[in-house]
Amino acid sequence: MTEEAGTAREQLRMRLTTHADVPALERLIDRSARELGIRDYSPGQIDGALRGAFGVDTQLIADRTYFVVELDGPLVGCGGWSRRATLFGADSLGGRDSQLLDPARHPARIRAFFVHPDFARRGIGRLILRRCEAEAASAGFESMELMATLTGVQFYSAHGYSSGPPLEHPLAGGERLRLVPMRKRLA
Fold it and tell me: Which residues sit opposite 169 in a β-bridge?
């Protein structure tokens, strides 16, 4: 299933992610984190985050809840949602919990949104977010939650998410990454 948006000059195509996309996703996530995240995090924090907090979660691909957006071919964005307990992190992050959530009691998770820096603020994140919220609502979830980077807080706030108190996530090498839990009730 794909969704398309854009003008005649610029054709965005959203589709489900496949395992074949993983190398391209890793490159996209690395570039997005390094170039967009540098306003809010040090290079050391970004390096540490790319070793676990940021990255590909193949469970989302297997669950068919992770999407990529292509612009005339290359990947320019990715993101998804989850019905599982893990709130954030790549396959390499310890402490993951694949337990299924109960839609009547738990919020679905928004997961792993990254946009290519050359295409930031062009509606790519919004396109993915709308799809994720609609699918979660169709699955019976009444609310969404996520763990936002400082870079992402403004984006999620603009789409109706409320912030909780920031927390410090420990990274390898003694660094810490400030993250913000956010939540939204679905209509």
Answer: 177
Centroid of chain to Cα 130: 13
Q: 42, 173 in Cβ contact below 8 A? A: no
pLDDT digit string, tens, across residues 2-50? 455 544 346 889 999 999 999 999 999 999 999 999 999 999 999 999 9
Where do the H-state alpha helices sit in the chain? 22-36, 43-49, 58-62, 124-138, 153-158
Q: Tokens for 11?
A: 């054709």
Question: pTM higher than 0.85, yes or no?
Answer: yes
C-alpha 187/C-alpha 82 separation (Å) is 18
140 φ, ψ to 5°? Answer: 100, 0
In order of 67, 126, 136, 158, the CA distances from 64 in angstroms are: 8, 19, 12, 26
Please say whether the beta carbons of 40 and 77 come within 8 A. Answer: no
The dihedral of CA 75, 77, 80, 86: what is its sign? Answer: positive
- What is the Cβ-side half-sphere exposure of residue 133, based on CA atoms within 13 angstroms? 19
The mean predicted confidence, pLDDT, of the chain is 93
Q: For residue 161, what is the DSSP state?
A: P
